[in-house]
Amino acid sequence: MTLDPLARIAAALERLAPPAAPPPDFRSEAFVWHTDPDRLESVRTVSRIDIALLIGVNRARDTLLDNTRHFAAGLPANNALLWGARGMGKSSLVKSVHAAVRAEGHDLKIVELSREDLPSVQRLLAQLRAVSHRFLLFCDDLSFSHDDQHYKSLKAVLDGGIEGRPDNVLLYATSNRRHLMPRDMIENERATAITPGEAVEEKVSLSDRFGLWLGFHPCGQDDYLAMIDAYCAHHGVSVPPDRLRAEAIEWQATRGSRSGRVAWQFFCDLAAREGVKLLG
Fold first, then answer.
1. Which domain holds residue 190?
2. Which tens digits make up the pLDDT trace of 238-262?
3. Beta-bridge mates of residue 108
4. Among the three residues 176, 192, 216, which one is the final residue of a domain in this structure?
5. Is the domain of 71 the same as that of 174?
């Protein structure tokens, strides 16, 4: 029996179309959003450190922790932008705060969304809106270039459009830039645009839509050494204080900077030389 041409076309399209993604297992605590096809992929183990090991960011830690507790309890809470110096624990703080709030008994989920997938955020929000769980939407290392239109998609999370942002979704983003775009790009827009104020305002105002701005600044030597001491105590690495201090200062001098990331890199090298395996 010969198939109708339309039936043959439909059958061919079904063979080409990717199979539907399985529904997410919301028993998991963490997910990564993927597209093509759209799906929430469970994360078996979240890479994070204990919140007590985050040194020198006390104000940001306490503010973000309180905001997250409010959201997890169903109270009003603000979207947050964590901005500032590289390697000072912005991403680590988001993941550690999530773990701390879950440890207090709140069934709070976290979903990582990459900047490249921002155009699909409305489809993600539609999925999250349909369930009863509460979600932190986490966008790491967020920034935009002068011709980047992804920032318009981000407004859907911050402003929500006609539907409004889902009550069970909160956005936490990290960036090295306070206004999510380089300062020289802002100044160039002001200098070359026909209406410079409007050209800059549309992009710069995006950061104004975050209710919380938490700044991270380069750490001093005392905080840098305190971070290393905390790692040693937590993982059971015992080194004479004078030697530890001298090697830590030499390490940061060769790197030309001090930060939480540099402190961790030194500690990993130290633990390996001492033959100590890190705790999970």
1. 30-216
2. 999 999 999 999 999 999 889 999 9
3. 134
4. 216
5. yes
